[in-house]
Design goal:
The complex is a heterotetramer, with two copies of chain A, one copy of chain B and one copy of chain C. Chain A is of the alpha/beta class. In chain A, 39% of the residues lie in helices and 22% in strands. In chain A, helix 3 crosses helix 4, helix 3 runs parallel beside helix 5 and helix 4 packs across helix 5. In chain A, 52% of the residues are buried. A three-stranded antiparallel β-sheet of chain C has the order 1-3-2. The chains are: A alpha/beta, B mainly alpha, C mainly alpha.
């Protein structure tokens, strides 16, 4: 396996009301990969990532960033929050200013960069996310998809090394979803780590290099998508189903209509070539 | 001719007494007060806002999360005052939310939030105004909350039930707010027969007609409070913990 | 969602420096208040509405609908000023006798009412100029120029943002309730409204916690530090504003 | 076509802020069908259904229920709101009472039924939706999927003839989604009309009898799923894509690997039989 960027060792976390959100969880996230996290609402996905950026502190166990133990000292925490960006599911919980431009400037401002650097960075990420034309509009006049992209811009503006997105495509139509996934590919380029949580199995299967399945605060399965989704037991436990492309491919293999030697298909186009 | 005049006068008076008066029309409008009174009420309100400001600054310094809570609460207060609720007489009006706010946050924090909400009402809804911001702040964000707070504390001391204490606090705060508005208007426009006669006029128009609306607001506040006390206990107690200043000191722990 | 909000982002004066618009509005308003002369107040009303309609390009019907908003308060307030008690019917235009007194309208009281009405309308037109041409965030920026404490401007920033979110939520809850007969009588209405506001409050509370976490993730410590897009002064508009105010002053 | 239960004739509607939500729209909804409405966020789906239950009144045009013109008199409006139930997308905006039981009773209570009838009805719909075990829980302690089911129970409790659900499966795991769609089948049974809005094309294709595509406040396409999804032009206009089952089937037909004579496949199982 490649270099590990984030690691959790036997961590436990309960919320104030007593809900156990993370239960003796260990995970190693490989650097530069496109990682997908599956698991129903309440499985602890967001809570886990709030541990990686230091907002939550595990009640037991430890967190490592680039192999270094997180010690929760102020400077290291700042470093962590800069480098591990989180895009929350509901953009209305993240965008606090009615000005798109102001909102994107918030993160860089907290990093204490000079004004010119901040302005250049804002322009860059807003162009990258296709939100530059929206800069004169108030946040409340944006569509849901536009708000999502602004929220992404606000996180990218801090130049993170890892970015975690909580259901970036939920409630978006297929075209918008594709746009966002492409944007994430651009950001990734094999160097920076992108982690996405999703309910859309087909999308995840086609996009991710590495898949984690969470269930009741634990990781119950991890690996390359082909392996994870073929494990009937764990995907059932997590209320998931097999991606259709994989199911059809496996069916074809079983009926000897396609050899197992070829590259496993990921997308519609891939599978049509086999048929 | 003489009789006709009397009849006409009577008709005009009836019309102003009878027409429904939504609370939005009860903020003193921009430019309505002569400049000296506008200044006077601005200066009168200022100490309360400054005190409230220091009180919330202190709490926010201890707990930066409180800033966001006050922000969303201000937005909540604005939305509350922007919606129309039905009144016992069948007409409808905007609730003031003064009683609820005072019970949730305490009167000093309410003076700051109330001040900002009034500014937003002027700029976004054209209710009230900038030159009358001081006068409106005094009636709605100072007198109202302090009356609510006082009545609530007193009622609890007398031994009234929670529901009655909340009802009295909210409805009397509403009435006293508009009595204050009448007082401010009577001072500014004493007429030829003096302040008292004028106060009678304005009270008749702005405070008496408010009674059914005040009763509705009292009932509404009770429903809201019961709901919160039963099902948002954890939120209320957090509010209690966060506000170790006057903020929310009087949220009961059941 | 609010009348003002639809036009404030699209009006033709949007790009003018907010300080220019703010000062123009406030100075003109103060002139109207201090001079307190019906003719000058009429002049201010005409000039302000003219600027809004012909320069800012706000539709005429919007401007007049806005001017109707204060009508409720003004009607009440102005008539109450106009009504007077006296013992002497000589100066009264209309009256009814009550006991030894007369209740009615005198010439002075009606003049006072008229002066107040026009003064108020002239200030209102200045307020509308500001409200319709200057977005809230620009006004907050002006307050920052005047060294308003950061806590106040930050609270304003948050309140402005969340007003729209909560309005939408309140509207959605209201719709869901009325779809289930929640507002079919007075009792039900008070109950439904109570539930609506209680829910909204609960949601506001959760919202503030989630917002806190998301801001922490972006490096929030104590202040909501942001930068604005650059604002530019324009000599032309500044000149026009000054000319208008000088013209009003000369007329006075 | 079968009996028409709801009809809109040339209706127009704009929101207060000037957004034109419905633009000269006409539609006839057949009775007893499983209807799906597709279209991106903001296409006007919810607004349209708020017209059908009388919450919105069209600024132009008319609405008919069972062939009768809606006149917006109080009694008729009540009848309409009782008979056309709407389940909103975000259950948090719909569950406003404290306990699950109380929430389900909100509608029946307002209808003024006798207490016994209310109790029986509540028990019935709560068992039907699998929420009976949750009856004493506070609504905020439920998972997202449970909230959705409680919201559905609250609407079913009013015994509507037509039920409209706004994205009932958004943000749910595949298993939960299946549960909900099955529940809707039960409610439908060929008699009562179920209308669902969704972004999930594959799900809609497998489930619906009749499909409407909305775009900018208009219906741009309607008909049986096989026809609607084959119209490349309209599905592209609405930012949609072809359901994979249909795409693979059409591909097979084109390559003469499957005759066009057989029943068009709808589900994974169907298509695997052909392969």
């Amino acid at each position: 396996m490649s270099e590990i960027i984030l690691e959790a060792r036997n961590i436990d976390f309960s919320y104030m009301d007593g809900t156990k959100a993370i239960n003796n969880l260990s995970i190693r996230i490989p650097k530069g990969k496109k990682v997908a996290v599956l698991g129903n609402n309440g499985a602890g996905k967001t809570t886990l990532f709030l541990h990686f950026n230091g907002v939550h502190r595990p009640q037991k166990g430890e967190i490592l960033y680039k192999g270094e133990l997180v010690n929760y000292k102020k400077n290291q925490l700042r470093e962590l929050r800069k480098n591990i960006g989180i895009v929350f599911q509901d953009p209305d919980n993240q965008l606090f200013s009615a000005s798109v431009y102001q909102d994107v400037s918030f993160g860089p401002n907290n990093l204490g960069w000079g004004e010119e650097k901040i302005r250049n960075k804002i322009e860059e990420v807003m162009k990258q996310t296709g939100t530059w034309e929206l800069r004169d509009k108030p946040t409340h006049a944006l569509s849901h998809g536009q708000k999502k992209r602004v929220a992404i811009a606000g996180v990218l503006a801090m130049e993170p090394e890892v970015i975690f997105l909580d259901e970036p495509t939920a409630g978006l139509d297929p075209m918008y979803s594709n746009n966002i996934m492409q944007l994430l590919d651009e950001f990734n380029q094999g160097e920076r780590t992108v982690i996405v949580s999703s309910h859309n199995i087909d999308e995840v299967y086609a996009w991710a290099d590495y898949v984690l399945i969470m269930h009741s605060g634990q990781i119950i399965s991890e690996g390359v998508p082909e392996d994870v989704f073929r494990n009937q037991e764990t995907i059932q436990k997590a209320n998931l189903i097999k991606p259709w492309v994989l199911e059809i491919y496996d069916y074809l293999v079983e009926k000897n209509r396609s050899g197992p030697g070829i590259v496993i298909p990921k997308t519609r186009e891939d599978i049509m070539k086999i048929l | 001719m003489y009789f006709k005049r009397i009849l006409l006068t009577f008709l005009i008076l009836m019309i102003i007494v009878v027409i429904p008066k939504p609370a939005s029309a009860m903020h003193i409008m921009e430019g309505f007060l002569p400049i000296k009174w506008a200044l006077f009420w601005t200066i009168t309100s200022l100490p309360f806002i400054i005190l409230g400001f220091f009180s919330i600054s202190k709490s926010i310094n201890k707990n930066p999360e409180l800033k966001l809570l006050l922000g969303v609460s201000g937005a909540f207060a604005f939305v509350l005052s922007a919606l129309k609720i039905p009144s016992v007489t069948g007409s409808s009006s905007h609730p003031t939310g003064i009683g609820l706010g005072a019970v949730l946050f305490g009167p000093l924090a309410m003076s700051v939030i109330g001040f900002i909400v009034l500014l937003f009402q002027a700029l976004l809804l054209a209710h009230g105004g900038l030159t009358t911001l001081g006068a409106n702040t005094f009636s709605m964000a100072v007198i109202g909350p302090f009356v609510a707070y006082g009545i609530y504390t007193l009622s609890k001391k007398i031994g009234f039930s929670q529901g009655i204490a909340i009802f009295l606090a909210a409805s009397l705060a509403n009435i006293m707010t508009y009595a204050t508005t009448s007082f401010q208007l009577a001072l500014a426009f004493p007429g030829s027969t003096g302040f008292l006669a004028s106060l009678g006029k304005f009270l008749g128009i702005f405070a008496l007609t408010q009674i059914p609306l005040a009763i509705s607001e009292g009932m509404l506040t009770v429903v809201i409070y019961n709901f919160l006390a039963q099902y948002s206990k954890s939120e209320l107690s957090q509010l209690n913990r966060k506000g170790d200043t006057p903020l929310s000191r009087n949220v009961p722990n059941e | 969602m609010f009348y003002v909000d639809q036009y404030v982002y699209t009006n033709q004066l949007r790009k003018i420096h907010p300080l220019e618009k703010f000062l123009f509005s406030i100075i003109t308003m103060i002139i109207g208040l201090v001079v307190n002369n019906p003719a000058i107040n009429v002049l201010i009303i005409v000039l302000m509405l003219g600027v809004l309609i012909f320069w800012a390009r706000i539709p005429v019907f919007v401007v007049f609908k806005m001017m109707m908003i204060p009508a409720g308060f003004l009607a009440l307030g102005v008539i109450t000023i106009a009504v007077n008690f006296t013992t002497d019917t000589n100066e009264m235009v209309l009256f009814i006798p009550i006991g030894g007194y007369y209740l009615g309208f005198t010439i002075q009281s009606m003049f006072l009412a008229l002066t107040t009405l026009l003064r108020s309308l002239s200030s209102v037109s200045c307020l509308f100029f500001l409200a319709l041409t200057t977005p809230m965030l620009d006004i907050i920026y002006v307050l920052q120029i005047f060294r308003t404490p950061a806590i106040i401007t930050e609270l304003m920033l948050l309140i402005y943002r969340f007003i729209f979110i909560f309005m939408e939520t309140a509207f959605n809850i209201y719709t869901a309730q009325s779809s289930r007969w929640g507002y079919s009588n007075f009792r039900g209405s008070i109950n439904s409204f109570g539930i609506l506001f209680a829910n909204l409050w609960g949601k506001s509370f959760i919202k503030s916690q989630e917002l806190f976490i998301s801001l922490l993730s972006r490096g929030y410590e104590k202040e909501l530090k942001v930068i604005n897009q650059n604002y530019y002064f324009s000599f032309g508009s500044f000149f026009i504003f000054v000319i208008i105010d000088i013209f009003i002053l000369i007329a006075a």
